Amino acid sequence: LPLIWHQCLPEAVKDYQSAYKKYETALQKHNDAAQKHEADVQALRTQVTSPDLNPRQRTKLDKKIKELVSKGPKPPLEPTQRMQDAEVPLMLSLGAALKLLLGSPTSAMQRQRGTQLLLSYLQEFKRIYGVSAMVPNHHFATHIPQQLEDYGTVYEIWAFLAERLNKTLKSTNQNNRRGGQQEVTMMREFDRHMQVRAIVRTFHCSFRRATDVTPALHRLNMHQHLHQMEPMKLRYRA
User: Fold this and answer.
1) Domain range spanning residue 114?
2) Tens of pLDDT, residues 3-30
3) Has this prediction a pTM greater than 0.90?
4) What span, in angstroms and rounded, lies between the C-alpha atoms of 160 and 25?
5) Is the Cβ–Cβ distance between 192 and 182 less than 8 Å?
6) Which UniProt keywords apply (predicted)?
């Protein structure tokens, strides 16, 4: 990871600087257009407040103001740097924290160090990318150390197996069946899937046993062939 950043970071910085210059130019144009747009809207609103305006004209002006406001100029998006120098220790902290916290088994010292690295990663992430880039999973991650202390290692409490089973059941073709038939269809499909897996596994094991025997037979044939060649060698020497 540090080598990749060392190789690609200068180009990323150069691209960001070029994009930011274009952004500043576009932002200046947007500000000018926004001022002109606001002046036009304000002029129409001034006309609406005129006492000499009849109701029909006032209705038309109100409609025109709404259309003009909805078509207001949108500000350009500020570019973001795709690679930053501070991301290297950030990713390394995350990797080390996951290595320590998700191990099986883990010691108290490993969990303590993993917690420190995880919190350091979250703080640096907030500093680099801002609060707007953070998601609920960042908050959920702060509960992992306490959950490990309460329930044991992640291999004992995670829900990967249950989630995989849910995915298998949800991918079943149910043919829009309801009223009790849906569960039966899911169980039949799951049983059919397990039978197919059992057949494939049996075939795979049989094939492996066959390939494992082949080298032994090959060595036996070579030994017999060499044994048959011994009399010929003796006659040649004689």
Assistant:
1) 87-154
2) 888 888 889 899 999 999 999 999 999 9
3) no
4) 50
5) no
6) Coiled coil
